[in-house]
Task: structure prediction
Amino acid sequence: MNKEIPEINHKTVVFTKHARERLDLRRLSEDAIIQVMRKPNTTQKLDEGKIKFIGEVMGSKVHVICRPILEENKWLVISLWVRKEDDAGNFVNYTKRDRNNRNSLSKIYITVFIWLIIIVAVAYYFSQLR
Result:
């Protein structure tokens, strides 16, 4: 039984159903993913032995989440995505300011909702005093 990190090639890389769906959505090939895994710009160790490979494919930043299966001498591709694309493969350009605006709007909605609850509770309390 081999306990070393498996070599990355077409025979040793397998994809989950989810990863295959992501391949189709992103119109990426297995070759492209294997290339990112072989020559990533960066890698990050994640929990549960997972590794994130980040590389470029046709000018887009691709993130690949994998886990080595040492007992089988294989790599399992769990998920993948292209930075700045939504699930349908459409380009999105969220800036930090956009995210902050969305968070601020959510806080306003929550505050208004809480005040409405307080007003209704106070109105109910006073209606019971009569």
